[in-house]
Amino acid sequence: MKATATSLGLTAVIVAVTKESPRILVVRRMSHDLATPAQRGSSETLGESPDALPFGPFDPERHRTLELGLWQWVEDQTGLDLRYVEQLYTFGNQYRDPRELEGGPRVVSVAYLALTDESEVAGSGDARWRDWYSFLPWEDWRDGPPGQVEKVIRPKLRRWIRQAADRETRREREERVGVCFGLGAGGYDCVRTLERYELLYEAGLVPEAHRDRQNLERAHGGAAAAFPADAMDAARRLGRPMALDDRRILAAALGRIRGKLAYRPVVFELLPSAFTLFQLQRVVEALAGMRLHKQNFRRMVMTGELVEATGRMDSSGPGRPAELYRFRRSVLRERGAVGVGLPSLRAAE
């Protein structure tokens, strides 16, 4: 059996929070070997979106480490100099790049998570900031259950459950839907972001699922079957698609951040050095996709000694001046887990 060639890529999920909006940096123009046809200015790949996370190939002759390679591609494509970077996950599913179907290499991408301030971008990638929830709109519960969940996702998933070939498959689907969207006793868990995306993909409720299936059918010599109009309409209502499997990577990154809120002080990487407790709460809410009880949140922050007063006041708002705080870094030496707790939500069926 002929071995499949492999290419190693580096992908960056670059996150900022601006005016209570979690923001993601995307690029739309690339010319390296891993760039899609859409990113090169054509649309040869069926249904391919030009919106992509910053990425590029790892070159062992140019890049002494994976992180140095990532920083170089990010700077080239966006003009940003990243500060906080951690490795997220390695993505290497077969056909994640559809050109593998036509004899191209298996593209394995090492993804990294970076937190920064939203600033002007430059570089060669036609980079731009986007609202994170424009790609994953079902993840924003700050104003209650998102309309997409009530009007599109739950009805379509109920139909998907009914279409199961046998009782056991139906039971498994019911269980997955309940766990992912909070229909069981445990409530809605905001950290299960990747599981929710995988479920929506398998059920054919995101455009990438239709794109990938049609590419697979075409590569095997068959005619790409048209999807029912209502299925495609539902998929279009569930956020902006992205190139390749970048929305899967985005969902994994959101889950990582939400999970770390409970035990690592990542939120302070997205705040100025001095901030009000209201600003801190709003940034946590933006990342968690849910509202928090004001007094309970402040009690948790103060009891946990996560912050300390600066002795200064913020008079920039329209109301009474608010006290300014800073992250108390010595807490890192005092405790192993330093973070804010997030509640579960009840998602009534």
Structure description:
With 349 residues, the protein is an alpha+beta fold. The protein folds into three domains: 6-133, Nucleoside Triphosphate Pyrophosphohydrolase; 137-236, no CATH class; 264-334, Arc Repressor Mutant, subunit A, CATH 1.10.10. Helix content is 33%, strand content 17%. It has ten helices and eight strands. The protein has helices at residues 66-78, 147-162, 167-180, 193-202, 207-219, 229-236, 246-260, 277-288, 294-303, 331-334, and strands at 6-18, 21-26, 55-57, 84-91, 106-115, 128-131, 307-314, 322-327. A hairpin with a 7-residue loop joins β7 and β8 (322-327). The longest helix is centred in the middle third of the chain and has 16 residues, at 147-162. The chain starts with 5 loop residues before the first strand and ends in a 15-residue tail after the last helix.
Task: Set out the fold topology.
Elements: E1 6-18, E2 21-26, E3 55-57, H1 66-78, E4 84-91, E5 106-115, E6 128-131, H2 147-162, H3 167-180, H4 193-202, H5 207-219, H6 229-236, H7 246-260, H8 277-288, H9 294-303, E7 307-314, E8 322-327, H10 331-334
Parallel strand pairs: 1-5
Antiparallel strand pairs: 1-2, 1-3, 2-6, 4-5, 7-8
Helix pairs in contact: 2-3, 4-7
What is the 3D shape?
A: globular
Superfamily (CATH H level) name of the largest domain = Nucleoside Triphosphate Pyrophosphohydrolase
How many separate domains make up the residues?
A: 3
What separation lies between the terminal Cα atoms?
A: 50 Å
Count of individual helical segments:
10
Helix content: 25-40%
- The CATH architecture of the largest domain is Alpha-Beta Complex
SSE string, helix = H, strand = E? EEEHEEEHHHHHHHHEEH
Q: Structural class from helices and strands?
A: alpha+beta
Give a short account of the largest sheet: 6 strands, mixed
Q: Per CATH, what is the topology of the largest domain?
A: Nucleoside Triphosphate Pyrophosphohydrolase
What portion of the residues fall into strands of 2 or more residues?
15-25%
What is the tally of beta strands?
Answer: 8
The unreliable regions are none
Round the mean pLDDT to the nearest integer and report it: 87
